Amino acid sequence: MQLLPRLCMATGTGDGDGEGSGKGRDSSSGKLATAVSSSSSTVSTSSSAAAAAVSEASSSASLPSLPSLSAAAAATLAASFSHVATLRPVCAGPSAAVVAAGDSLHGLVVARPAAVALHDLSTLEATSTSAAADAAAAAGSVKCAAHLHGGAAAVTGHQDGRLRLWRVSSRSPARLCLAAALPTVADRLRRFPVPSNHVTVRRHHRRLWIEHADTVSGVAASADGRLLFSVSWDKTLKVWAVPSLRCLQSLPAHDDAVNAVAVAPDGTVYTGSADKRVRVWAPRPAPDKARRARGRKHQPAYHLVATLSRHTAAVNALAVGSGGQALYSGGNDRSIVVWEREDSASHMVAIGALRGHRRAVLSIACSAGGLVVSGSADQTVRAWRRAADGRGYACVAVIDGHGAAVRSVAAAPSPSPAPQKWPRGGGGGGGDEEEWRVCSASFDGEVRVWSLRVSSGL
Fold first, then answer.
1. C-alpha distances in Å from residue 271, one per residue of 226, 231, 289, 330, 404
2. Backbone angles phi, psi at 118, to 5 degrees
3. In which band, very low, low, confident or very high, does the pLDDT at 232 lie, cut at 50, 70 and 90?
4. Are 167 and 179 in contact (CB under 8 A)?
5. How far apart are CA 154 and CA 169, in angstroms?
6. In this structure, how many other beta carbons lie within 10 angstroms of the beta carbon of residue 287?
7. How does pLDDT run across 304-360, given as a tens digit for each residue?
8. CB atoms inside a 10 Å sphere around CB 212
9. Which pLDDT score is estimated for 32?
10. Is 27 exposed, middle or buried (0-12, 13-18, 19+ CB in 10 A)?
11. Could you point out which of 29, 178, 343, 365 has its C-alpha 20 to 30 Å from the C-alpha of 50?
12. In the chain, what are the domains?
């Protein structure tokens, strides 16, 4: 069957060459900066149903046992996206980037081997940037990044098995300081003398259980910012206390490398692995009032509550949406499985799949307003909008502009003013318009920022 032509293709300056290539170094401070190029290209989709049809036709073979949730997309949605800017690395060589976004107030984290920076989502200017000395100390390629509660701190996971905590300097807000590398020296010295703290990670090689033995592939923070969760290719999930920077728990999470972690607002943790499974972890109940009255501070201990098995290949990405009521998992089977909370079983049940990517799904992000964004090895970013009744999803945009696989995506409501009305007869048919900033990072080091607008017609 001949496939329909792809909709929502970016028609702007996709390579971004030209005006942005000469920018990037701050001569006054000597810090590494980021080259920015802008584009005014805009592409509109007049019918989300047509975009969903393309999604279904281009990947009909993935997860045939699950119904396609994008097949019944609402035709009342209209969308447009524009390329706002491209943030390029200024140093030569491999510099794959990762991004993470909190909300319109907390901004954007852009992490590369040479520098970690916090960007304002409105102006896209770097508000805080790590110094060259701190970047040199952060050995190993950056694999993941996350915002911490409050927006003035971020954490990155690295190929050398360490996590690094970055905070905005109180003396110089333009500087992002390396606050700690986890596990800290103090934590290791405290546990080193006890023989039971040493575990065998492979033949004739032992480590402290608080250390990751392989690449840190995913990191996420709890909603209150008090706990940090990291996963690694060493098959473990670790729980960290942010105030004390101590490792509280290490769990043998999966039978193969763990690729992703996500945290719900209620503290439930989800991990995805190359063993094709998603596992659900929850804290054990708090101790009784008598123990707490004696002054013992309760530290949550996580345990396995469910295993979700619907993927047919490795799971690469996870994201939690709808206030913790929905979970999205993407993998090498090219599909995004949508899970919803099932009260009777106290975990998630698969209700369907979002299809359209031609290669592995590498990253997923959720934002307020029912927006789901996915990045793939097919070099595209897809935006999905959940229907108001929660029964289906519309593929509102297929963004094509990267020259390499999209390894990381982030989305946040646009910092622009309140929702506007599209005029009647325009693309939106006079409905309410919502706008997001969508950020995507690829293996070639480019970080692209897009403005996505979705209008519900009347």
1. 19, 8, 32, 12, 26
2. -105, 130
3. very high
4. yes
5. 12
6. 11
7. 999 999 999 999 999 999 889 999 999 999 999 999 988 765 588 999 999 999 999
8. 26
9. 37
10. exposed
11. 365
12. 35-374+407-416+435-456 (2.130.10.10)
Both tokens of 24, joined, read 């990037």
275 Cβ contact list (under 8 Å, min separation 6): 254, 255, 256, 314
Residues 25-54: tens digit of each pLDDT: 344 333 334 444 444 444 444 333 334 433
Residue 353 burial by Cβ neighbours in a 10 Å radius (0-12, 13-18, 19+): buried
Q: Let me know how long the chain is.
A: 458
Q: How many Å apart are CA 74 and CA 72, to the nearest integer?
A: 6
Q: What is the residue whose two structure tokens read 């995507």?
A: 440
- Structure tokens, 29: 């401070």
Nearest to 244 by CA among 177, 182, 303: 182
Q: Give the pLDDT band (50/70/90) at residue 218.
A: very high
Distance CA 302, CA 265 (A): 15
| b (16+ CB within 10 A) / e for 399-423 | bbbbeebbbbbbbbbbeeeeeeebe
Q: What's the per-residue H, E or C state across the chain?
A: CCCCCCCCCCCCCCCCCCCCCCCCECCCCCCECCEEEECCCEEEECCHHHHHHHHHHHCCCCCCCCCECCCCCCCCEEEEEEEEEEEECCCCCCCCCEEEECCCCCCEEEECCCCEEEECCCCCCEEEEECHHHHHHCCCCEEEEEECCCCCEEEEEECCCCEEEEEECCCCCCEEEEEEEECCHHHHHHHCCCHHHEEEEECCEEEECCCCCCCEEEEEECCCCCEEEEEECCCEEEEEECCCCEEEEEEECCCCCEEEEEECCCCCEEEEECCCCEEEEEECCCCCHHHHHCCCCCCCCEEEEEEECCCCCCEEEEEEEHHHCEEEEEECCCCEEEEEEECCCCEEEEEEEECCCCCCEEEEEEECCCEEEEEECCCEEEEEEECCCCCCEEEEEEEECCCCCEEEEEEEECCCCCCEECCCCCCCCCCEEEEEEEEEEECCCCEEEEEEEEEECC
* d(C-alpha 212, C-alpha 267), whole Å: 22
- Cα distance between residue 25 and residue 34, in whole Å: 7
> How many other C-beta atoms are found inside a 10 Å radius of the C-beta of residue 368?
15
Distance, in Å, from the CA atom of 162 to the CA atom of 275, rounded to the nearest integer, reads 23
* Structure tokens that stand for 317 in this block: 């990405």
* Cα–Cα distance list, 197 to 8, 71, 246, 249, 411 (Å): 54, 52, 14, 12, 40
